[in-house]
User: Which sequence fits this backbone?
């Protein structure tokens, strides 16, 4: 044998023949001839790359294209029409609902909302009639020391902090607002123990002002399941909902979603078969579904 590089030998397994046949079939389907490939090689370019670049897009994965088109353009979770249908379904399920906390004044609602943190409304409603009978006015609460209120609200949990917040709020309402709960967001937020959620409850429920939406655990969970938001932080969820829910519906929408989370769309075992929103919901954890499931709707 002459000296120098020996020619490459064919594979004994015949794999080179299989690869060649696959390439020829692919090129034939794409309408590219073997001469085109050969010509591109003789000109110094990469034949395989040149031929493959001329393959029409329709030979690519149709499943990927179909998925992109169906999720990208056909489905808009925050479209006005879909939002209207969600609101209409909630209206039908929960006509005329309001805040579940028992109250007779803005002050009683404020106290009940402070006590409801990390506690059920049912338990709060057992406690508030007793303390409001014992301390009928905001001035009565203002004269207390937090330690005096603690035994009365112990069953609501975190009773030390809550007692400090209630007494502190009462003192500020008496000293700075003439004994009347203020009707403005900034003033409410200046009270001890009052964050935006509590302020939205008081403003929307008692004063009938749609300044924002109440975002509790139910609103957070269901808004994400309905793909109205992708956030987990209450402030960002509220901002997303304020963009898609009509302002005149902010308070009612919050109450309806909260009731929906208690009655049907429960966290561990949602009653999807009984839900009027079932055809609009693509949540990944649905227990029964007639529509496509979206993996990121959770």
Assistant:
């Amino acid at each position: 044998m002459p000296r120098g590089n020996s020619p490459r030998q064919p594979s004994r397994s015949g794999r080179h023949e299989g690869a060649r046949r696959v390439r020829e079939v692919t090129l034939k389907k794409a309408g590219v001839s073997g001469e085109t490939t050969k010509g591109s090689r003789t000109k110094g370019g990469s034949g395989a790359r040149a031929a493959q670049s001329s393959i029409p897009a329709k030979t690519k994965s149709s499943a990927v294209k179909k998925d992109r088109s169906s999720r990208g353009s056909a489905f808009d979770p925050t479209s006005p029409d879909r939002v209207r249908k969600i609101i209409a379904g909630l209206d039908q399920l929960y006509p005329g609902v309001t805040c579940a906390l028992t109250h007779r004044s803005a002050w009683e609602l404020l106290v009940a909302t402070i006590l409801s943190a990390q506690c059920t409304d049912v338990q709060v409603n057992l406690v508030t009639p007793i303390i409001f009978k014992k301390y009928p006015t905001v001035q009565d609460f203002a004269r207390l020391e937090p330690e005096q209120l603690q035994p009365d609200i112990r069953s609501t949990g975190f009773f030390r902090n809550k007692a400090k917040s209630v007494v502190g709020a009462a003192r500020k309402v008496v000293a700075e607002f003439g004994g009347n709960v203020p009707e403005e967001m900034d003033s409410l937020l200046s009270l001890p123990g009052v964050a935006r959620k509590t302020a939205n409850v008081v403003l929307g429920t008692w004063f009938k002002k749609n300044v924002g939406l109440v975002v509790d655990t139910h609103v957070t969970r269901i808004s994400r399941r309905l793909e109205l938001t992708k956030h987990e932080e209450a402030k960002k969820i509220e901002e997303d909902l304020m963009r898609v829910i009509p302002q005149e519906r902010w308070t009612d929408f919050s109450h309806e979603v909260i009731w929906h989370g208690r009655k049907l769309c429960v966290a561990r075992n949602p009653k999807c078969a009984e839900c009027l929103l079932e055809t609009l919901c693509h949540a990944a954890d649905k227990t029964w579904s007639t529509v496509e499931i979206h993996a990121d709707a959770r």
